[in-house]
Amino acid sequence: LLSGQCITDLWHAQPKSAFGYRSLKLVRAPSRRDELHRRIARRFEEMLSAGFEDEVRRLWQRTDLHPELPSMRCVGYRQMLYYLNGQCSFDEMKERAIIATRQLAKRQYTWLRAEPDCLWIQDDEPVLGRALSAVVNWL
Fold it and tell me: Which domains does the chain have, with CATH numbers?
């Protein structure tokens, strides 16, 4: 964020009635950790194939960006910068980025589990039917 604060701190600073309406929290998640890890690795490979390295190279050439900005410390960007600066090999960069993404996913799961009133929908469940049923019951 441009403010230098994480989103959780900003949310906690808001008054509790900031939205003025109720919300239904649906969370879709893989039911098995190995499936999540496989998806994370596949997604990073897809990002690389789509030109992620070139994107970071172009960003790194800008004079207004530096490694300490939150946008450049994001998962994937930080690891790619290490690679582009010769601090690790391409394979090490990939491994580090995938590990960092797994760690981020774990923190997100931890945060979501602490959220009250979330309805968890596993990826092996019929999503549309379960979500529609939850919405109807919530209304």
Answer: 32-116 (1.10.287.890)
Tokens 């939205």 sit at which residue?
Answer: 19
- Phi and psi based region of residue 56 (left: phi greater than 0; alpha: psi -120 to 50; beta: remaining): alpha
- Secondary structure letter of residue 45 according to DSSP: H
- pTM summary value: 0.74
Residue with tokens 């600073």: 13
Q: Which residue in 127, 109, 129 sits closest to 118, CA to CA?
A: 109
CA-CA distance, 127 to 133, in Å (whole number)? 10
C-alpha span between 41 and 43 (Å, rounded): 5
pLDDT digits (tens, 9 = 90+) for 12-37: 776 655 566 778 888 888 888 899 99
